[in-house]
Amino acid sequence: MKLLSISIASGAALLASLGVQAATSFVKTSGQRFTLNGSPFTVVGANSYWVGLMGLTTAQMNQAFADIARTGATAVRTWGFNDVTAPISTAYYQLWTNGTATVNTGPTGLGNFDNVVAAAKANGLRLIVTLTNNWSDYGGMDVYVNQLIGQGSPHDYFYTNAATQAAYKNYVKTFISRYINEPTIMAWELANEPRCAGSTGVTSGSCNTTTITAWASTMSAYIKSIDSNHLVAIGDEGFFNEPSSPLYPYQGTEGIDFNANMGISTLDFGTAHLYPVSWGQTADPTGFGVQWIQDHATSQKTYNKPVLLEEFGVTSNQTGTYAQWYSTILSSGLTGDLIWQAGSYLSTGATPNDGYTIYPNTTVYAMEALHVAALKARNV
């Protein structure tokens, strides 16, 4: 495959051909819809967690976003975190030294994220930026816990300990304050897939849905107190809290109560992920996903807030499965979706492939473009 090196100028040319203008106004919500300048705005696109973490050049960032934009996408979800305990040569955003955190505002830190924002803007894409991770990839909650409470402490202390909360707020304030007036950023997310348990599996035994709902309420209110321009969401998987259900993702055992969280006034929209095989729903993963989408669309209507299926994936029968899921998103009225995950062929090679990755010129990539057009048409 021929590798492309796309400049910011050619990104602007792509925008012009698609009739898209760079962001000058903030995305808002109205009932179950997102809006822009008072008109419906369709949020649809992909995840690219890696774009600000791999030490990419600005041209490579621009190519990655251009590949997504060619589907007609409007939004990309990406990581706004990387906690390290020693400096690294690629991008990192917070350095921890003996319990003290320093936000990296230099060229390998927030200066690098400035380039991410500029490349997204050049390609007419809005960013959903996630501010920490439940998992150990790129640092996450356990770094806070280990540094401030003690190595191997329960993961869920992140949600309740005064020191971890103060440190998280400090990071959030520094990061968010830099971009308060930047409309290319559509939304902040509190965390990627918060749960009572993290990568270590160590918990206090007292964490439950009330714990994480209280944390989400406190932290979303804190972000709103700093930044009234941007939307806020949790970034959770959308697990329901129905203990009598025979299905694991509905039982509330991970500490997430989707409906309770939809009721938090300082959260602007709901999020759900969909990985039926990873969740043990192997008998009919496609059918499980159809029901999952429909159930979240029901909650969306009940709470009159937008809901995004902001991560979803299977590693086999992708075309058949995604065709049914896309059809269900359209028919159910679910607000929008972001596939996991986008891929590109850069001059340095292919971007990360975890088995879910969709590269340009594939069947699913073409399906994405058709779905984007259909979702935009539905939302007019």
UniProtKB/TrEMBL annotation:
Enzyme Commission identifier(s): 3.2.1.78
Pfam families: Cellulase
Catalytic reactions of this protein: Random hydrolysis of (1->4)-beta-D-mannosidic linkages in mannans, galactomannans and glucomannans
InterPro entries: GH (IPR017853), Glyco_hydro_5 (IPR001547), MAN-like (IPR045053)
Domain (Glycoside hydrolase family): residue spans on this chain: 45-343
Protein localization: Secreted
Secreted keyword on record: yes
Keyword Secreted: yes
Gene Ontology BP terms: mannan catabolic process
Any one GO CC term of the record: extracellular region
UniProt cross-references to SUPFAM superfamilies, sorted A to Z: (Trans)glycosidases (SSF51445)
A GO molecular-function descriptor: mannan endo-1,4-beta-mannosidase activity
PANTHER family to which the protein is assigned, alphabetical: MANNAN ENDO-1,4-BETA-MANNOSIDASE 1, PTHR31451
Sequence similarity: Belongs to the glycosyl hydrolase 5 (cellulase A) family.
The protein, known as: mannan endo-1,4-beta-mannosidase
Organism expressing this protein natively: Gloeophyllum trabeum (strain ATCC 11539 / FP-39264 / Madison 617)
